[in-house]
Amino acid sequence: MSKRGSFIVVEGLDRSGKSTQTALLLARFEAAGIPAKLLKFPARTTPIGQMIDSYLKSHSDLDDRAIHLLFSANRWELASTIEHLLGAGTAVICDRYAFSGIAFSASKGLPYEWCRAPDVSLPAPDLALFLDITPEAAKARGGYGEERYEKEEMQRRVGEIFRRIGQEISDGGGEGEGGKWVGIDAGGEKDVVAREVWAFVEPLARGIEGPLRRLWPDKLTI
Fold first, then answer.
1. Which of 37, 103, 168, 178: CA 20 to 30 A from 216?
2. Which domains does the chain have, with CATH numbers?
3. What is the DSSP letter of 123?
4. If residue 134 lies in a helix (H) or strand (E), which one and from where to where?
């Protein structure tokens, strides 16, 4: 049985360095001669992504439930693309994924289980890396505050939900719950963070034996 591509998700607070680290990770794959594709969520060029982009830039307003479902639909727009790439042996690196959807919406007061429900059965990553940084440190970085959610107290609540997600995945052993969850201190120099990221990714970089799993299959109701 040929190996499929590895599915790596990078999560974190706004300005935690996700874009930098996913770009460096993609370069690592390419330097090693391993086919890889970087996807960013929200994918702002799709029809749904354009609506999300307008909302995030505060050019439009939507009900909290409506925007949450749009974020989820945006991921489903690319779910078949992710599966195809992985099946062809291409590694997929995601800058944000379903875990962000839960963290940001639940931090606004929506029920945690309700927030998780639309993403049940999406492709599950093999590894989720959470770039951990304090809201204060994130605020000090360039560009902070340009988008709707970049407020210190909001980011603090988001971080708490991310840690809940990580703990639940770790307690469940990762099987069908989102792969392995790893927290990384993102407050250091970017090259130091990049080396730690690669240390966790490298064992998976050349592919995975076994089928692609699904997020939270035990929560699936028909």
1. 37
2. 7-209 (3.40.50.300)
3. B
4. none
Phi, psi of 126 (to 5 degrees): -80, -25
Chain segment 45-93, per-residue pLDDT in tens: 999 999 999 998 888 899 999 999 999 999 999 999 999 999 999 999 9
The answer to whether residue 138 scores a pLDDT higher than 90 is no
- Spatial separation of the C-alpha atoms in residues 79 and 59, rounded to whole Å: 27
Indicate whether this model's pTM tops 0.85.
Answer: yes
Q: What pLDDT is attached to residue 1?
A: 56
- Cis check for the bond before 203: say yes or no (omega within 30 of 0): no
H or E segment at 100? helix 98-106
| Separation CA 137–CA 146 (nearest Å) | 16
The answer to whether residues 107 and 154 touch, using CB atoms and an 8 Å cutoff, is: yes
Instruction: Kindly state the tokens that stand for 155.
Output: 């980011």
